[in-house]
Amino acid sequence: MPPDETTKINPWQMVLAQIEKAEKHLDCSLDMLEKLRHPERALLVSVPVRMDDGRIRVFKGFRVQHSTVRGPAKGGIRYHPSVDLDEVTALAAWMTWKCAVMNIPFGGAKGGVECDPAELSPGELERLTRRYTAEILSFIGPDRDIPAPDVNTNSQVMAWLMDTYSMQIGHVVPGVVTGKPLAIGGSEGRSEATGLGVVYMVLEAARKLGMDLSHATAAVQGFGNVGSSAARNLFREGVKLIAVSEKNGGCYSPHGLDPFQLQKHYAETGTLHGFPGSDPIGNDDLLALPCDILVPAALENVIHRENAGQVKARMIAEGANGPVTPIADEILREKGVFIIPDILANAGGVTVSYFEWVQDLQNYFWDEAEINKRLRQIMTASFKKVMAIAEEKDVDNRTAAQILGIGRVLEAAQLRGLYP
Ligand code: NAD
Hints:
By secondary structure, the chain is an alpha/beta fold. It has helices at residues 11-23, 33-36, 85-101, 122-136, 155-169, 190-209, 225-236, 259-269, 283-287, 326-335, 342-345, 348-362, 368-393, 397-416, and strands at residues 41-50, 56-67, 73-80, 108-114, 145-149, 217-221, 240-246, 249-252, 279-281, 293-296, 315-317, 338-340. The chain is globular and about 55 Å long.
């Protein structure tokens, strides 16, 4: 049973509840499952930063490697006031399953610093990033653990991380991080990849449900890397985008919003409010809008036992990690909402990160068409496998994806055996 839930739930408890649900359906040996209920390593670091006013502030930083059974650990770095050890550990475990669902040779990791980057100057942000990198330096590396962007971190942050690591090692090491700028070994297509992957999965789901996307409507929560790319790519597919939001709220129009114009408006004004032809909308109201496709692309825990009953979308494509709590999952299943779970829907980012890492190791770079073709192939194959498991085992899509992911990790763990 899902753990007792108020509206919010500890994300690590969510992971454990999901493992318990998938466990009953796993055909392989469960001998190593206990190992996956614990992260392999968790590092807590203090990050002292000289602020612009001369004072020293100390931030709390984390890097957690959940599993390296299938390859080097892989996962983003989040800068947010709510970052804590349980959140980072949960996000690391979801990375483990996600890489396994895509069948890419990585384990799962995540990192974070408890901070509000909106309060930091560019100089403070750079010093925080460099000191955090120095503190986790012995943990990371192209063969051991490869960070990437997540909430409130971007290609510039990855560039500072790569530079700090390279300066310490004594030579340039582009493969230590993905999501870098193109000029220093980044990959074509990486910045769009997560949102584009979400839309590849929406296309597959729409085909399965017989949904005509040219008559479909969508609402997107979060207008950062994932949400804005998902919005643009849905728009390109002819979907009518009726609402988009960021942390301070968003805008709504039943006639449709142009995400390219919206991006310009957001860049110029710093708010989604006031976009011509639209009305303001709050984040909770956005989730309850009648629409065909709902894309939560902000944070975890946004659809929970209190508001799941109000969701009217036919399909939820989880751009964010962990946006739906276990009890909300049950409520949505009873309502017949088709969920494309996070470890499938938002795996485009880590898949192109894998391409970036491969290109960095080979010093040979592919064009965007090649990247997107390979991305689509991998994600579509994974979608089909997850759907086949859902049908065969008569389970929901999330459980099916977990069965695939956890099953692959268990198979590798069994083959490697227990050290010593
Ligand atoms: P981002 O920092 O680029 O954007 C986050 C967006 O969410 C911003 O628009 C922010 O205003 C909004 N937001 C923050 N708090 C909110 C709240 N309480 N309510 C509504 N909106 C809120 O981050 P991102 O990289 O787009 O990541 C978003 C989600 O996608 C996270 O769950 C992340 O783990 C997941 N994800 C990201 C990637 C990636 O490649 N960046 C890959 C896979 C999954």
